[in-house]
Design a protein that fits this description.
This protein is an alpha+beta fold. Helices cover 50% and strands 17% of the residues.
């Protein structure tokens, strides 16, 4: 190979090798402090080998460099992932007084009851536990709340905070396809949280902040200025939406607007992305062209505008990454130097990962990098294929398709859907959104100089937002506006990108590939035939299996049963009592879509308490469900728990379960073991109403018990007789109100599943309950520790795996 050939391919190879090193390091759980000497020796050897081969101008030099960057990826990820000895996360579970410095402006929201919820981000300096004081490192979130009538200052960047409370791990729902928010925050150095009462928090103002802190305070004031001026002339929900378009965020936005933007594929405009940067750069470049400025001045103006915008966005990592990626894409496309921009993109991505290797698993980096690659590599080719279309249409479609094709596996894994209406919305709605963003930025500047002019601009922006909302609602209601995608794992993703590479391969490479395939056509056909035979044989030889998934929904119950032929049913759906988080929409539905489930045959609800039934509301609204079986509390109670209107026709799907009833589907039997009439228990709290269902397939059986209490456990034993089950969902999350000795002996399970929230205030599961199940030999699994728990059975054998043991980023 001649020196200097295939430079872009060589850079791409280095990037891929470095990423493979990161992936292997994460998968193998390499400990930096333990393997440091070995990694250094290997790294030095690879550097020497690469240098010697480069000096000799060997044709195999590229192989040594690929190996060098693979080892460097191993080294960097292991170093970045390991926490410092005094990191605050090592103290989780302890009550302590934490002293630190505020690194971000306090985040405050006010709920419907007028209570202010405040979140601080603090860099830890020291921790006091009892009488012992020790240094601390890392960052943590501090949560508190206070009466909104108070108008005392809540602190600003650089102030000293002292907070006392129990240190907790950051929470996220540990399910396949769920975004690992704990890891995303760890990428920003945040590793723990602490909740404190107002009296246990002290803010000491810093009257002499550093230059950096003073600058960040000014940036926070500018952002607050934008929101306050908008809120003066428009509804706060409109102000929140336009503020999100300008600087990112979802707080305060109407749920229906968010859903419409999501369905039409333009939800990215509510977070700082490369599209914002490109839009801003395009406006500045157009102004420079209008005033006929020299090219070098135009480029400097574009770069300066991007820098200012990233600063106004709060210098948050996603904004910085989007600024870099967007600038690279814009300069390459507008200046007609796509090839140079591709070099810059690959080099920028490689440098970002060398500096912060955790970004490889960060969804923001993945989407930014791949979408920019789609704009630079795929969009020009797509535009050339659409040369007969008007330029504006061809440009818009090619940019949308290029970006969507490039990020498809990421969208499939995390969101399981792609918006078909995105093509239409990018042609019609996005230009209007661009005007809203430009007017919003201009309105804030105008409000500094002439407040009346700023108010007029913001009022116009509010009207345009209303038009945009109505347009997106229409597009979201179109047939087939969204296509549901199956999740792609690593093999499927690699296959997809391989096919994409073949489809968009440059002509010179395509000809070489065609010649190679022609020379090896017999071998190619033979390999393809063998693979096809193996796949077909594996499908025919595999025994039909039932799957039972216990989903992590926090302090609640939700279990999914998938029959051998793909029919699906849910046993309880989880939920929260304070309506602060929609488990159905944000946990249950993503989980179902992750496994390709687009309809449910049945939902079986044990009783109407929100932690068992609230999630069903979102499921009924967004997914076909044939029938819902409930306990005997009455339809109105379930309507309130699900938060749907009493007159909603979806309630026609609800029917009361009858004890002794059974349903058979694909050889799977659902037995209604216990369904007490409500008249027997109406004077009690509601847990006593719990229905009990048992699912049987061959010799395997699963008992779903809701929140059944001891008194009714004894009644069920008397009525149902044989309760023996392979797996039991432990009643009432392991509370000592349930799981009496007679019940545990009657069920005699091999596995006891505890559906509990991490660090729950109830102390579930109780040690005495755990001990009872251990005495009968049951293996304990918990959703708070193990995440989603999945059983596979062919009716004879039974296997189980958990999300935590398969998640190489679980900490």
């Amino acid at each position: 190979m001649t020196t200097g050939q295939y430079q872009l391919s060589f850079l791409c190879g280095l990037l891929v090798s470095f990423c493979l090193g990161i992936l292997c390091s994460a998968f193998l759980h390499l400990t930096f402090s333990l393997y440091f000497p070995y990694l250094v020796v290997i790294l030095v050897i690879m550097i020497l080998a690469s240098g010697i081969l480069a000096l000799k101008q060997s044709e195999r030099t590229w192989i040594a460099f690929l190996g060098l960057f693979f080892i460097l990826g191993l080294f960097r990820f292991a170093a970045a992932y390991e926490l410092l000895p005094y990191d605050i996360s090592y103290m989780t579970g302890d009550r302590a007084s934490v002293h630190g410095i505020l690194t971000d402006a306090p985040h405050m929201t006010t709920d419907a009851d007028g209570v202010q919820h405040i979140r601080y981000t603090a860099a830890v300096q020291k921790v006091v536990r009892g009488q012992a004081e020790q240094p601390g490192t890392g960052k943590l979130y501090v949560y508190t709340r206070r009466d909104s009538a108070e108008d005392s200052p809540i602190g600003e960047i650089g102030d000293v905070i002292t907070a006392e409370g129990k240190i907790r791990r950051l929470h996220y729902y540990q399910n396949p396809g769920q975004i690992n928010t704990r890891f995303l925050l760890r990428c920003e150095g945040i590793t723990a949280s602490l909740s404190a009462s107002e009296n246990d928090i002290k803010i000491t103002p810093n009257t002499e902040p550093s230059y950096a802190q003073a600058f960040l305070r000014w940036v926070a004031q500018v952002r607050a200025h934008y929101f306050d001026r908008m809120a003066e002339v428009m509804p706060r929900s409109d102000a929140a939406a336009i503020f999100a378009m300008l600087f990112g965020g979802y707080e305060g936005i109407r749920p229906e607007l968010l859903e419409a933007f999501t369905t039409t594929g333009i939800v990215h405009i509510l977070s700082v992305s490369g599209s914002h940067i490109s839009l801003l750069a395009a406006v500045i470049a157009w102004l420079a062209l209008f005033f006929r400025l020299p090219r070098w001045i135009s480029v400097m103006a574009v770069v300066l505008a991007i820098g200012i915008y990233v600063i106004l966005a709060g210098l948050v990592p996603p904004a910085v990454r989007s600024g870099i990626m967007g600038a690279v894409a814009f300069l390459g496309l507008v200046l007609g130097r796509e090839r140079d921009a591709q070099y810059l993109l690959v080099l920028t991505g490689l440098l970002m990962l060398v500096v912060s290797p955790l970004l490889f698993f960060h969804i923001s980096f993945q989407l930014s990098f791949l979408a920019t690659a789609g704009l630079l590599v795929l969009a020009p080719l797509l535009r050339s294929w659409m040369e007969r279309l008007p330029f504006v249409v061809a440009a818009s479609l090619s940019i949308t398709l290029g970006a969507q094709l490039a990020v498809l596996p990421i969208l499939a894994w995390h969101f399981n859907q792609i918006s078909v209406s995105a093509l239409l919305s990018n042609l019609i709605v996005v230009p209007l959104v661009d005007i809203i963003i430009i007017l919003g930025l201009a309105g804030g500047i105008a409000a500094f100089v002439l407040p009346v002019l700023g108010s007029i601009v913001f009022a116009v922006d509010s009207l345009l937002l209303g038009v945009t909302f109505e347009m997106t609602k229409v597009m979201a209601s179109l047939p087939f506006a969204v296509i549901v995608l199956p999740s792609m794992g690593i093999p499927e993703g690699l296959l997809y990108y391989g096919l994409l590479l073949i489809l968009f391969m440059p002509k010179q490479y395509r000809k070489k590939a065609e010649r190679l395939l022609l020379c090896r056509r017999r071998m190619t056909v033979l390999i393809a035939a063998v693979l096809a035979i193996v796949l077909v044989s594996w499908q025919f030889m595999k025994s039909p299996e039932m799957e039972v998934h216990f989903i992590d929904v926090g302090q609640g119950d939700a279990a999914l049963v998938i029959t051998p032929h793909g029919h699906a049913m849910l046993f309880d759906t989880g939920g929260t009592r304070d309506n602060a988080f929609d488990i159905g929409a944000r946990v249950d539905l993503p989980y179902l879509r992750h496994y390709g489930i687009q309809a449910l045959d049945y939902i079986f609800l044990s009783h109407a308490h929100e932690d068992h039934a609230a999630g069903a509301g979102a499921i009924l609204l967004h997914m076909p469900v044939n029938h819902v079986y409930t306990a005997g509390e009455g339809t109105g109670v379930y309507a309130r728990s699900m938060r749907i209107g009493d007159g909603n026709p979806l309630l026609m799907k609800l029917g009361t379960a009858q004890e002794g009833q059974s349903i058979v589907l694909d050889g799977v039997t659902v037995e209604f073991l216990y369904a007490p009439p409500y008249s027997e228990v109406e004077h009690l709290t509601g847990n006593e109403v719990s229905n009990v269902y048992r699912v049987c397939y061959g010799n395997a059986s699963f008992l779903f018990t809701g929140d059944l209490v001891k008194e009714h456990e004894m009644k069920m034993i008397a009525r149902a007789g044989d309760l023996n089950s392979t797996v039991v969902k432990v009643p009432h999350h392991g509370s000592d109100t349930s799981s009496c000795e007679d019940f545990v002996r009657a069920v005699h399970p091999s596995y006891a599943i505890y559906c509990v929230g991490e660090g729950n205030s109830f102390g579930h599961p109780r040690p005495s309950v755990v001990e009872r199940y251990e005495r009968v030999g049951a293996r304990m699994l918990r959703t708070d520790r193990d995440g989603a728990i999945v059983f596979h059975t062919d009716g004879k054998s039974l296997s189980v795996h958990t999300f935590a043991e398969g998640n190489f980023l679980n900490d």
